[in-house]
Input
Amino acid sequence: MALITVIVTNATNRVLSFNVGVYLICATFLMCAATCHSEARSVH
Output
């Protein structure tokens, strides 16, 4: 049972860290897009 728990915990940690990485990438992309969009709007 302990081995299964360790495997599940490791898998969960990997999925969580992967999701956090994807979330950070998406957040950075959205912030850059918003900044570029507002700058382009102020130019026009």
Remarks:
- Helices lie at 2-43.
- DSSP finds one helix and no strands in the chain.
- Residues 1-44 form one domain.
